[in-house]
Amino acid sequence: MLYPGTMTRFEDNFWGAEFCSTQGFETLLTRMKEGSNMCKELEDFLKHRAKAEEEYSKTLQKMVKSTGDGGEIGILRNAWDTVRKETDHLATVHTTMSQSLLKEAEDIRGFRKLQEQHRKEIEEDNMKYTRLKRDLYKKTMDAKRSYEQKCKEADGAENAYSTSRVTAQQKEIDKLKKKASGARQQAEQADTAYKSCVEGLEQSRISWEKSHAHSCQVFQKMEEERIMFLRDKLWVHSNLGSMICVQNDEHYEDMRKALEHCDQHKDVSLFVNTKKTGTQRPAPVVYESYYPDGTKSAKKFAVSPLHRDRPSTMSSRPPEPLPQVASAASAVPNLPTKDKHRSISANKYPDDDNNFSEVSVDFGYSGAQSRPSGINPAERLPYSRTEERE
Question: For residues 349 and 334, is the Cβ–Cβ distance under 8 A?
Fold first, then answer.
């Protein structure tokens, strides 16, 4: 458990018991890369937020430009104009917010690039000492195996020489003695080479240890700087959001102040005073008879006996025009010579008041030269003929 004032250091906690282990450094390196990814995440977050603010600002501006006064007048018109003006100010506030967020995102990008470059430098330096230590360790292990093998060979040659001194001939003894002396010499040389490798490996280990400790220190400093840097940027983001809320509230307050002055009675009075069309109402329409005495009179016509019981078909039909007759001779066709009783019924004969009544005219004649008296063919109205056979 950590207490206030206690400091946990990377260089005390990221080592490994295995001589060639790089687990501690790889763990720190992974953390550095994760920190860089976090910076990239926050950078993208601020960019997207800035884009959203910009689009919202453009939408507000488009709304203001696309709306008119609506034909409103009076105090409500002034309040509506204030709402539109303050909405345009809100768009400006969000545009400023977008620009500020983009600037913060660029700062994070620069910080991330700087940390990545520093991390790569530390990584290359550490890996250089790590590779050297690994190579020397392999070489030392080979020297150790060679040394142990030479020692075994030397011991075997010396044991053979000691045994041969009792039973073997002198010539054989001298040969074994020479072999044992050479094996021992090779063992001593392997021992020297092995010691030299161990000394070189130790020097490499010390250099690597210093490099790793330095890497731990640098990584810890970078991690602390990154945490504080991102914390500050998130704080700035929160402050920007709070500031835009305050500014928005100020503009909305200006809208509310304008709306407080709205008075429906004043606006109605203004409309009446500026648009009134008059106070006199139209007079009622009264009945006026066409006839001075108020009664209607019309001439009555006799109805033909032939048509007394026949329903009239002229109640809804307009009067037909007079036929165009060129001459009296062509208007009346030659009548048959056979004596017939002709009955001409003119159903549409207007009287003096333009009322239509049936008029029946009966006349009889015989011969082509006979013609009814009192009838001018050029002036006759259209009529229907009915013939009755004798």
Answer: no
Q: From 88, 31, 386, 52, select the one nearest 222 (Cα to Cα).
A: 31
Contact yes or no for 102/236 (Cβ under 8 A):
no
Q: What are phi and psi of 71, to 5 degrees?
A: 75, 10
Q: What whole-number distance in Å separates Cα of residue 159 and Cα of residue 163?
A: 6
Confidence check: pLDDT of 104 > 70: yes
Residue 388 pairs in a beta bridge with 341
- Supply 342's token pair: 């002709």
Residue 346, CB-side half-sphere exposure with 13 Å CA sphere = 17
In the numeric block, the tokens 């309040």 are attached to: 79
Helical packing angle, 23-66 and 170-260, nearest 10°: 20
Other CB atoms within 10 A of residue 18 CB: 8
Rounded to whole angstroms, the Cα distance separating 301 from 353 reads 12
Predicted confidence band at 169 (pLDDT cuts at 50, 70, 90)?
A: confident
Residue with the bigger pLDDT between 179 and 323: it is: 179
Q: Which two tokens stand for residue 124?
A: 């290359």
Q: pTM score, two decimals?
A: 0.63
* The predicted structure's pLDDT at residue 318: 54
First-residue to last-residue Cα distance in the chain:
145
Lowest-confidence range among 23-32, 60-69, 277-286, 293-302? 293-302
Query: In Å, how far are 17, 19, 116, 125, 388 from 212, measured between CA atoms?
Result: 14, 13, 18, 9, 143
> What are the angstrom distances between the C-alpha of 338 and each of 84, 257, 307, 342, 365?
101, 109, 26, 11, 9
- The alpha carbon dihedral of 303, 307, 313, 314 has a sign of negative
Which residue type sits at 114?
A: L
DSSP letters along 135-200, please? HHHHHHHHHHHHHHHHHHHHHHHHHHHHHHHHHS-HHHHHHHHHHHHHHHHHHHHHHHHHHHHHHH
Q: In whole angstroms, what is the distance from residue 230 CA to residue 237 CA? A: 10
CA dist 164 → 102, 168, 191, 230, 292 (Å): 92, 5, 27, 82, 179
Strand spans (E) along the chain: 340-350, 356-365, 384-388
Residue type, 39: C
